[in-house]
């Protein structure tokens, strides 16, 4: 190994040591028992295991219930919070046919282009103002 790699590994070990030391010195932080997470990836390596698709599927079934989600999503029946079943497929078909149809997308595209033109005109005015101030300051 080159000395640069050795220095990099030592630096990473030092960072890990500092993070663990900081955690143990903070008495207010009470975490449940478990291994400390690795930098950047956390405990993802423990979550995936041998069969990551099954682990992630089981994790998706443990979705928590929130009262606000229930209230604002009509009892969990909208497209975002509905479980995957016939109702969800009907909602998806409706959304694709009505909201994401070509005519509806084209209709919504005119507004951003008008906004772009407006912002371009405003930015051009600002550039003209800035250039005139610069010329005024250079003349004085």
UniProtKB/TrEMBL annotation:
Under the heading Gene3D superfamilies, the entry gives:
Cytochrome P450 (1.10.630.10)
Q: Domain of life here?
A: Eukaryota
The answer to keyword Cytoplasm applying to this record is: no
Q: Which InterPro entries match?
A: Cyt_P450_sf (IPR036396)
| Keywords linked to the UniProt accession | Heme, Iron, Metal-binding, Monooxygenase, Oxidoreductase, Signal
What would be an example GO MF term here? heme binding
Q: Where is the signal peptide?
A: 1-21
Required cofactor names? heme
Q: Which family does it belong to?
A: Belongs to the cytochrome P450 family.
In terms of PANTHER family, this protein maps to: CYTOCHROME P450 71A9-LIKE ISOFORM X1, CYTOCHROME P450 FAMILY 71 PROTEIN
State the name under which the record lists this protein: Cytochrome P450 71B9
């Amino acid at each position: 190994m080159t000395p640069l790699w050795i220095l990099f590994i030592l630096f990473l070990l030092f960072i890990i040591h500092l993070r663990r030391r900081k955690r143990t010195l903070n008495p207010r932080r009470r975490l449940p028992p478990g291994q400390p997470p690795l930098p950047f990836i956390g405990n993802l390596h423990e979550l995936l295991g041998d069969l990551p698709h099954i682990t992630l599927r089981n994790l998706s079934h443990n979705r928590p219930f929130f009262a606000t989600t229930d209230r604002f999503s009509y009892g969990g029946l909208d497209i975002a919070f509905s479980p995957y079943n016939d109702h969800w497929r009907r909602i998806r078909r409706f959304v694709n046919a009505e909201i994401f149809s070509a005519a509806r997308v084209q209709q919504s595209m005119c507004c951003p282009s008008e906004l772009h033109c407006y912002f371009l005109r405003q930015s051009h005015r600002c550039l003209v103002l800035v250039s005139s101030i610069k010329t005024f300051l250079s003349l004085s």
